Amino acid sequence: MRDLSLHVLDLMENSIRAGASVISVTVRQDSARNRLRIVVADNGPGLAVPAKVATDPFFTTKRGKRTGLGLSLFAAAAERAAGKLALRKSRLGGLSVEATMQLDHVDRAPLGDLATTLAAVAAANPGLEIRCLLSAGKRRREARSRPAPDGLSRAGALAAAVRKGIAEAGIS
């Protein structure tokens, strides 16, 4: 995938398909340690297989498909940038997917348009709560989208809050 926000979109779609009603997206930029950390966590049922199985490109839980490339592609993107991917139980009760990578690595994909990604998911899923935490150094910003009947207006508000948060936190 061309940018990291598309990996976030894939993970959010997986969470929704698994039945999650709350998804949290965290982006932490630590310039002092030269690290970028992206975490997508949900309150879904979690993962029924070991992490090694889930990141195998020939494993999928989707009926009618033979491959499950999402996690393996995100793992490869992290590894290309001297990082790794970890799967854990989330604080929300479901799955947490955490990618860490070297911030200034020449092969690190750009973050992309995270605001539009989250807004698109919010617009298409009005019953979904989306939480977004953005931080760089001591600067920290949060944006939230709560379930609402009007998915478009909440999606626009979420996009504006995420764009402002990225700018104020200084995430690149």
Explained architecture:
The protein is globular, with a radius of gyration of 15 Å. It has five helices and six strands; from the N terminus they run H-E-E-H-H-E-E-H-E-E-H. A six-stranded mixed β-sheet has the order 3-4-2-1-5-6, with helices on one face. The mean pLDDT is 89. It has helices at residues 4-17, 51-54, 69-80, 114-124, 151-169, and strands spanning 22-30, 35-42, 84-89, 95-102, 129-136, 139-145. It has one domain: Heat Shock Protein 90. A hairpin with a 5-residue loop joins strand 3 (84-89) and strand 4 (95-102). It is an alpha+beta fold and 172 residues long. The longest helix is centred in the last third of the chain and has 19 residues, at 151-169. Helix 1 runs antiparallel to helix 3 (69-80) and helix 4 packs antiparallel against helix 5.
Provide the descriptors you would attach to this structure in a database record.
single chain, 172 residues, alpha+beta, Heat Shock Protein 90, six-stranded mixed sheet
At the first level of CATH, what is the class? Alpha Beta
Q: Which percent band covers the strand fraction?
A: 25-35%
The ordered string of helix (H) and strand (E) elements is HEEHHEEHEEH
Tell me the domain tally.
1
Structural class per helix/strand content? alpha+beta
Query: On the 0-100 scale, what is the average pLDDT?
Result: 89
**Strand neighbour order, sheet with most strands:** 3-4-2-1-5-6
What percent of the residues sit in helical stretches (DSSP H or I)? Answer: 25-40%
| Count of helical regions | 5
